[in-house]
């Protein structure tokens, strides 16, 4: 998996091996990481996959509003 966007130190948007965008949570998973970096899969606590594109866009907007 490759980081697409860092939302905060604990939440990232990634591209999985199938080319799908997913949201991944884990303590410190994005600490000192940049888009394009590989994901340390040992730090993953939760994975969110959205099938409907409109729901996906809404989820991204909600996550961007979280401090």
TrEMBL record:
Residues 1-59 form the CAT RNA-binding domain. One of its GO terms (molecular function) is RNA binding. It holds the Pfam family CAT_RBD. SMART domains: CAT_RBD. Signal peptide: none annotated. This is CAT RNA-binding domain-containing protein. It comes from Bacillus safensis.
């Amino acid at each position: 998996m490759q980081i697409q966007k860092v939302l905060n130190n604990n939440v990232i948007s990634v591209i999985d091996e199938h080319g799908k965008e997913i949201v991944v949570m884990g303590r410190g998973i994005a600490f000192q990481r940049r888009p394009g970096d590989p994901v340390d899969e040992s730090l993953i606590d939760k994975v969110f996959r959205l099938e409907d594109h409109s729901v996906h866009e809404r989820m991204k907007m909600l996550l961007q509003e979280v401090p």
